[in-house]
């Protein structure tokens, strides 16, 4: 495993993290505590130290599964990132809750679910610019940092071209940006990444396998069943993505190299990107994700494409 400093924080994160939306049950699979333990134990064995979750992956369900695990392990071996701003109200349904009082309630609920005294990275979660531009919200969060409940603040931008929230990061005390970035969606390269680099913000690239399209498992013409999250995607866009993936496989992925491994390493070449946070359903996928670190060099990171 390789590690990078997350922007101007003192956090050294593994270049591969563990995304845990799936633990909330919305991916069509319910996880037992034993299954979560096996996934996180494998991550630890692979040198992964970053777990990314959220208050609304289930009603604090993902956090609770992680918290139970952490309560039986060494807490300071892990960098835990979670988020705020939503209330889970059903599968793929959320209520937006952004008042300072409500966010404080969410923070305390997250700390309780995670069975921890502090959160390493507490992220504004895909909210509107109006919700973001509440000075009293950031004042409240700064007080929680000073109280030791939060080590660092971050922003998970909903639109991967949200320059407003990215540009305001240093002003509000947010030290990291989480953003959708992958070989099929390079929008952040245009405006968001240059701003992150100028401010020395850490970058967590989410959906690095483009919701599994870049896993290499699916050929053009694949039809996803109703229990699959990709069934919700626009059919024409899905067809175009699968055709693009096939072209990338033929022209960009080295012969004999697993496409998912290549796709994760591809994201990590950009000098703005600190870490990628792919999801995983079992320990084997964790190990497969971790292999991408072998193809990451800091030379490529500094001198990108």
From TrEMBL:
The keyword Magnesium does not apply. It comes from the Bacteria. Keywords: Oxidoreductase. The keyword Oxidoreductase applies. It holds the Pfam family Aldo_ket_red. CDD domains: AKR_AKR11C1. InterPro entries: AKR_Detox_Biosynth, NAD(P)_OxRdtase_dom_sf, NADP_OxRdtase_dom. Residues 16-297 form the NADP-dependent oxidoreductase domain. This is Aldo/keto reductase. It comes from Fodinisporobacter ferrooxydans.
